[in-house]
Amino acid sequence: MKSVDLYVETVCQQACCGNEAPCGDRFLQQQFPAQGHTVVVLSDGMGHGIKANLLSTLTASIFMGMAGAPQSIETTARTVMQTLPVCSVRKISYSTFTLVDIDHRAGVVHLIEYDNPQAYVFRRGVPFPVTRQAHPYTHPQTGRMQTFYTSSFRMECGDRVVVVTDGVTQSGIGREGFDAFGWGRAAVGDFLAGLLERDAEITPRSMASAVVERAVANDEGIPRDDISCVSIQIRRPWRVMLCSCPPSLSSDVSALAEELRAFEGRKIVCGHRLAEQIATSWGVPLRQQLTSTDPELPPQWEIEGLDLVSEGLLTLSKVLEILERYSEIPTGRGAAYHICELLLGADRIELVIGMRRSNTAEADTEALILRRKILGAIARRLEGGFSKQVEVRYL
């Protein structure tokens, strides 16, 4: 399968030193569609608290500012290390970092690592060996020799990359059952492998949460350092197609019906008229449910082959209201909450909006226009508030 068909899911879970914010580790992720890259940075500022947070944020932000530039990752790393402030006493940079640069077009993952624990790479559930190249570097201000590492590998569907700060690998220092350096990188790797052995489909969120929870437990519930775990999975994207409003041309109805039938993902139709057209084109019945689980909305319909069929304007208005009210997947009953659950559970969303004008009444036409505006607002909210990849098409 081509790399462009792959999706990168990234989750960072953290615990603050002494359970007191802010966290001295900084995680940033950004997509660069024009270059076809996804860039992930995890930086660990020296110490903890506000100063560490500022230093790690500076490091991660510099990387993101340079990520779109046409230069090698080695040049980027040297520039960042030269820019970072240096401790006047210890003569070392005030923050460490790991950068994961995923080149979707080339299908290659690049890593840059400086003083963070070495990243973990898994393929088909087992550790995948990656050759690292050392890059000695003499800091122009201190004259001190430092070394950063680069590595690359061609990505495959199912690959995982896990990055942690030393708050994870050094958790448990001084406690019985741990060596002088705490939990240790090898033991963390065994823990990750065990998670994948027990559940090959474990989500990045669950994996990162398990690592952080274990590291906090190693420190007896009060982290002695900031703890961060970034879990990345390269997988097939989860897709949703939502269609609403009849197409402008009758011929487009048949084309849309066939596109819906062939679509690989979850399928939603909002609007009774379009639902009737789809059911007729497919030659299947359109059945209305007797009651609604949401007293504010009409009952849903059922069409074999579709995941959800609802009324249009009222339901989509409530979908927008829910999306604007919550920052995570909301819980509730009824069509609007179910649509939100499907949309927020997807990576890539296609909104297909029909442009036919109503021939019945002016109010009906105004309702269709309003529904299209609401769909546009939903698309913007999904992109801006939830970082979803949304494609809007008009028929």
TrEMBL record:
Q: Which domain of life is it from?
A: Bacteria
> Which keywords, in A-to-Z order, does the entry hold?
Hydrolase
List, in alphabetical order, the Gene Ontology terms for molecular function in this entry. Answer: phosphatase activity
Does this UniProt record's set of keywords contain NAD? no
Annotated PPM-type phosphatase domain ranges read 24-234
Under the heading InterPro entries, the entry gives: Bact_Sigma-Reg, PPM-type-like_dom_sf, PPM-type_phosphatase-like_dom
User: Is Hydrolase found in the keyword set?
Assistant: yes
**Any Pfam family matching the protein:** SpoIIE
Show the PANTHER family listed in the entry.
STAGE II SPORULATION PROTEIN E (PTHR43156:SF2), STAGE II SPORULATION PROTEIN E-RELATED (PTHR43156)
**Record protein name field:** Serine/threonine-protein phosphatase
Q: Look up and give the organism this protein is from.
A: Candidatus Rikenella faecigallinarum
